[in-house]
Structure formats: structure tokens, C-alpha cells
Specification:
Blueprint (H helix, E strand, L loop, with lengths): L1 H23 L8 H11 L6 H12 L5 H22 L9 E2 L2 E2 L1 H5 L1 H22 L4 H15 L5 H6 L8 H23 L8 H21 L2 H4 L5 H5 L4 H23 L7 H12 L5 H7 L1
Antiparallel strand pairs: 1-2
Length: 297
């Protein structure tokens, strides 16, 4: 466990350093000061950083030969996630007053700056990827395609947000676009950044992403606002598809466990497969903290 903790700490430090470097590029003289402040506010302090740590863990398992590319890929994934949170919280969507235990970006800086901050983070993600992988154009091209497909149309997180404006959407389709695709991009980008074939890694990310979304649905009904650092009961209030509303708490909890098992079983053969399996099992245990798992029982 000590060795595992050291690995987790190293991954977390690498993510924070890469994000700090990326955001620093936006803080140069000439940038509108409130927008620059909003960008930093959107990224730091962060949440669990699950997606970028997953990307780096997969890169390590595949025997990465250029850490700069892996770091850039991981940072780009997290910047896109941060952008999605800024836009998700806007008054035209969830109108969320808090995020990560502090005022949401539009509450802290105003709606116009929040829209621009989210837009700027999307662009910054691709700038970061271009800088980090410039010396490896073949990998860069593949990474841009992986990341862009996870964000845009027809099935990226933009589509996931748009499904909330439709009169009907299936739970699996909604969760895949809303959450699963960016997790899938994290595992695929991790493999691609290490020079490995990316396609076999999609299932791992998508299963973990779906598991994370189911856990989020459970947290939305089981946790308190202080525990989550954001409003609770949002799925019911906004009429969104939810694993809990369709399966009940017990059914959603069983489904969560099944998804985690399927994710671990899907890990492709690679030099670091055993260590990655252990790391993911440990991470997945945190999706639904023990105190909430007891409430779900």
C-alpha cells in the first residue's frame, strides 16, 4: 500500500504541475485580468483529478517513453473537464451556486466572464496538447482526434449537455456522452501518448466513466451539500436521467459494482497491467465513500 500511495502521489503531483504550466500561459501581460483570474479559479484548487490521473496511469502501464506527451494529454483532459463544469453551472443550465465547495465561476465573476472562461479552457486544452506533443506529430494527430471526439459532436460531452434539452434520452446514452466519453478519452490518450494502440483502452475508460456517473447519481441522493461541495438533489429537480430514479438505490449500487468489475476485467495486456488493475480497484472504491455506501445498504 505504501508503494501504491507513492505512485498515486506522483501521478497527482505530475497532474498539478502540468496544469500549473498550462494555466501560466494564459496569465501573461495583455490578458484581461478578470478573465485570467477566472481561468485560474476554474482550475485551482481542483477536485479529485480522476481523469488526468487515469490517463497518466495508463501511459505508465504502457511503458511511456516521453513523459511530456503524457503530461500534456492528461492536462488537456482535465482542462476540458473544468470547462464543462464552468458551462454546466451556468444559469441557462443547472444554475448551480457552488462548485467544489466555493462559489461557481458565474457567481464569482459574472455570467459573461464564466462563458468566456469555459471557452478559453477548451482552447487552452488543445494548445497544451499541441505544445506537449509538437515533436511527435503522428501521436499529436491521433491525440487531437481522440480528445476532439470526446468533446464535440456527435457523442462527446457537448452532446451530453445537449441531451438535457431534449424531451427524451435513454440513461445509458446520456451517461455515455455526459461522462463516459471523457473517461474513455483519458484511457485512450494515455495509451496513445505512450505509443501504444489506443482503441483497446476505450472500454476501460467508458466503464469507469459510467461507474463514476452512477456513483454521482447515488451521491446526489445520499450525500449532504457539505459532503459534496455542490448542490444535492439536482437530478430530481432538473428532471435528468438518473441510475437511482430508474434502478433505485440498491439497484444502482449493484450496477456500480458490476461496472467496476467489468472495467478491471477489460484492461488490455501490457507490461504494467497488474499494477494498473490494483490502482484502479483502489480508485474505484472512492467513487462511493464508505459512509455513503453504508447509507445505500
Amino acid at each position: 500500500m505504501d508503494a501504491l500511495s507513492r505512485v498515486e502521489q506522483a501521478l497527482a503531483c505530475a497532474v498539478e504541475q502540468s496544469l500549473a504550466v498550462a494555466v501560466a500561459h494564459t496569465q501573461e501581460p495583455g490578458c484581461p485580468p478578470r478573465l485570467a483570474a477566472a481561468l485560474r479559479y476554474s482550475v485551482f484548487p481542483g477536485g479529485a483529478r480522476i481523469r488526468p490521473r487515469l490517463a497518466l496511469a495508463v501511459a505508465c502501464a504502457c511503458g511511456e517513453d516521453n513523459p511530456e506527451i503524457a503530461d500534456a494529454a492528461a492536462a488537456s483532459i482535465e482542462l476540458l473537464h473544468c470547462a464543462s463544469l464552468v458551462h454546466d453551472d451556468l444559469p441557462c443550465f443547472d444554475d448551480a451556486p457552488i462548485r467544489r465547495g466555493k462559489p461557481s465561476v458565474h457567481r464569482a465573476f459574472g455570467e459573461r466572464i464564466a462563458v468566456l472562461a469555459g471557452d478559453a479552457l477548451i482552447v487552452l486544452a488543445f494548445q497544451t496538447l499541441a505544445r506537449g506533443a509538437a515533436a511527435s506529430p503522428r501521436r499529436l494527430a491521433a491525440l487531437v482526434n481522440i480528445v476532439a471526439r470526446a468533446v464535440g459532436m456527435p457523442g462527446g460531452i457537448v452532446a451530453g449537455q445537449a441531451w438535457e434539452s431534449e424531451s427524451h434520452v435513454g440513461l445509458a446514452e446520456y451517461q455515455r456522452a455526459k461522462t463516459g466519453v471523457l473517461f474513455g478519452a483519458a484511457t485512450m490518450a494515455g495509451a496513445e501518448s505512450a505509443g501504444a494502440e489506443s482503441a483497446p483502452w476505450r472500454l476501460l475508460g467508458e466503464r469507469l466513466g459510467e461507474a463514476f456517473q452512477v456513483a454521482d447519481d447515488l451521491r446526489d441522493v445520499l450525500a449532504t451539500e457539505d459532503e459534496l461541495g455542490k448542490p444535492i438533489g439536482q437530478d430530481k429537480r432538473l428532471g435528468r436521467p438518473s441510475a437511482v430514479s430508474q434502478m433505485g438505490v440498491e439497484g444502482a449500487t449493484t450496477h456500480l459494482k458490476r461496472l467496476i468489475t467489468e472495467a478491471v476485467d477489460s484492461i488490455p495486456q501490457c507490461s504494467g497491467a497488474a499494477g494498473l488493475k490494483t490502482l484502479i480497484q483502489l480508485e474505484a472504491q472512492r467513487f462511493l465513500p464508505p459512509r455513503l455506501a453504508e447509507r445505500a445498504a
